[in-house]
Design brief:
Order of helices and strands: EEEEEHEHHEHHEHEHEEHEHEH
Radius of gyration: 17 Å
Largest sheet: 9 strands, parallel
């Protein structure tokens, strides 16, 4: 399965929302960031049974806790062993590309330095959205930061133990993995691997079990150096091909229209699970879900979409 590189972000002052209608950019050679063709590989199952070696720690992907049953697929490394990138079922992928499936993904964003804002009452969660997805029975993938899981452990556990959902890694601090990235603080290259591992550890500490070995770069920003650095972590980077435009939006209908106009069979949509950054996402979903179902679409998690 091939993967194309698609990035995007919409940012507000001090709080990032991933997914901007503008075309994205990368700092490394485009060809180097493409994943190779071929069947997906199999992700390691469950957390390691023994403590990681002090000199060779377990890769971050091994720290995921996939649900019982079929293991979530991952992709083969890209050129020169780079971390592979998945954005949608390739339009040339045969029967799977023509099947009317779509994955809704929701970024649960919270940066490491936003604790004081949460303490003062700002809400980085969105329980109404999660409740709506449950009522509508929409399988979804939540790309969660470790800091979000620490701020809302009960919600992280509830999401991560519900078979309707799977939790994927959106970093611990929600800092950028390359610069510039819309004003985000930048993770040093030496700290990138630990940031990803720390997020998986936060999910485990919260009691989440349905955790998959997928990673979404904060802001969707990455370059060849970031893909090379994370290659040893055995995660598949997941981007998107449909930007909802929900970050800091005020008009739910406009968000819904943008999603409905962009979805094609095999699409992967980026939305948000953060009330302060995306206050109308739940209202948009109330329109998107029934309309796509009326068009014959079936909702799937990223793991199923990647399986093809």
């Amino acid at each position: 399965m091939t993967a194309a590189v698609v990035l995007g972000a919409t940012f507000g002052s001090g709080l990032l929302g991933c997914g901007n209608p503008e075309r994205p950019r990368t700092d490394g050679p485009r060809a180097a960031a493409h994943a190779t063709s071929g069947p997906p590989s199999t992700a390691p199952s469950g957390p390691p049974s023994t403590a990681p070696s002090a000199t060779r720690p377990a890769p971050a992907g091994a720290l995921a806790s996939p649900p019982a049953g079929r293991k979530p697929p991952t992709m083969a490394p890209g050129p020169a062993g780079l971390t592979p990138v998945f954005e949608r079922v390739p339009r040339t992928g045969g029967a799977a590309a023509g099947e009317k499936v779509v994955a809704l993904t929701f970024d649960a964003d919270m940066t490491a330095d936003q604790g004081p804002r949460a303490a003062s009452g700002e809400r980085f969660d969105h329980p109404e959205l999660i409740a709506l997805l449950r009522r509508l029975k929409v399988p979804s993938t939540i790309f969660m930061t470790g800091r979000w899981a620490q701020e809302y452990p009960a919600q992280a556990r509830s999401i991560g133990t519900d078979p309707l959902f799977e939790i994927a890694n959106h970093s611990y601090r929600h800092y950028a993995f390359t610069s510039p990235c819309y004003g985000l603080p930048v993770v040093g290259k030496a700290d990138m691997r630990e940031d990803v591992r720390r997020a998986f550890a936060a999910f485990r500490a919260a009691g989440a079990r349905n955790v998959v070995p997928y990673f979404r770069f904060p802001g969707g920003c990455y370059d060849e150096a970031a893909l090379r650095t994370l290659a040893s972590e055995k995660v598949t980077a997941v981007q998107w091909d449909v930007v909802s435009g929900d970050a800091f939006a005020k008009d739910a209908d406009a968000v819904a229209e943008q999603v409905l106009a962009g979805v094609t069979p095999g699409s992967l949509v980026v939305m948000h699970c953060t009330r302060s950054a995306a206050p109308v996402t739940d209202e948009a979903v109330k329109r998107v879900v029934p309309e796509l179902r009326a068009r014959g679409y079936r909702f799937v998690k990223v793991s199923e979409l990647m399986r093809g």
